Amino acid sequence: MEADTMALGVREVENPRDFGVVEVEGGRVVRILEKASQPPTNLINAGIYHFNREILEFIEATPLSKRGEYEITDSIQMAVDEGIVFETIKIRRWMDMGYPWDLLRANEEILKGMVGSEILGEIEDGAVIKGSISLGEGSIIRSGSYIEGPVVIGRNCDIGPNSFLRPHTAIDDDCHIGAGVEIKNSIIMSGTKVPHLSYLGDSVIGCGCNLGAGTKIANLRLDGRDVHATVGGKSISTGRRKFGAVIGDNTRTGINVTINPGAMIGNDVFVGPGAVVDGDIQPFARVF
Question: What does the pLDDT read at residue 124?
Fold first, then answer.
């Protein structure tokens, strides 16, 4: 592809109703349709673009959409209508990231590709490491901890003593994972503390959170069916038999909090000691 060529990444899918679809003639974009009820093709917009400076003229002229947003697909359609050529490039490896729990699948795929370990921090005697791990500068894994890779731990983290990190766990910088904490297949973002006697399974935890002692995030329904979560007021299947919760930034839980599978907790939420959390919790809420 030439450096000044404008192009749009596309991919064939089985469920084009869930995406913006792209009509193509001779390998060039003719029309982009957003979530059409009767898609004319199963070729979707993969959300990957290559622009030159010509697109800026059309971005500046793009009006607000019906959703109250400036949408790049509207800019592209305006350019196509004016005779600007957009080539299409078929994307081989692609993953839909429309929902928060899709981060877990992406994380799993990325960590599966880890080969070997990179240890830039300290591992105390008595800690057990199995498989591939990445340990950032200034981080420490304390005695008695058991790490099953692939696991990524960022900079300036304090792990243990006696923590259990299971495969496909990613911990960002400046986190504290303390004594008696088990984390499985989860993403823990920067500055979050899980200091005592907690279980986190198949969950995404935002930045700057603090989970009180004994906080447990369940990740499996009693009937074993796929976990549902509430998004935009609608209950949606996550497609995952095991899914815990998504917790927004700066959320805090008291001791002995139970968070049920599929909980969606906004940022800056306080959850009181002993509370049971279900469903969709709005930002800044107080749960007791």
Answer: 98
What digits encode the pLDDT tens for the residues 103-160?
A: 999 999 999 989 899 999 999 999 999 999 999 999 999 999 999 999 999 999 999 9
Whether 95 maps to a domain, the answer reads: no
CB 182 within 8 A of CB 197: no
At 178, list the tokens. Answer: 């303390």
- Tell me the C-alpha distance between 75 and 57, whole Å: 9
Structure tokens, 274: 């002993």
d(CA 168, CA 186) in angstroms, rounded, equals 7
For residues 274 and 213, what is the distance between their CA atoms, to the nearest angstrom? 10
* 16-73 pLDDT, tens digit each: 888 889 999 999 999 998 877 788 889 999 999 999 999 999 999 999 988 889 999 9
User: Residue 63: beta bridge partners?
Assistant: none
User: Could you tell me if residue 225 is inside a domain?
Assistant: yes
Q: Which of 50, 168, 176, 196 is catalytic?
A: 196
Question: What residues make up the domain containing 82?
Answer: 6-90
Residue 96 lies in a domain: no
Whether 230 and 280 have beta carbons less than 8 Å apart is answered as: yes
Count of structural domains within the chain: 2
CATH number for position 27: 3.90.550.10
Domain CATH number, residue 194: 2.160.10.10
Verify whether residue 196 is a known catalytic residue: yes
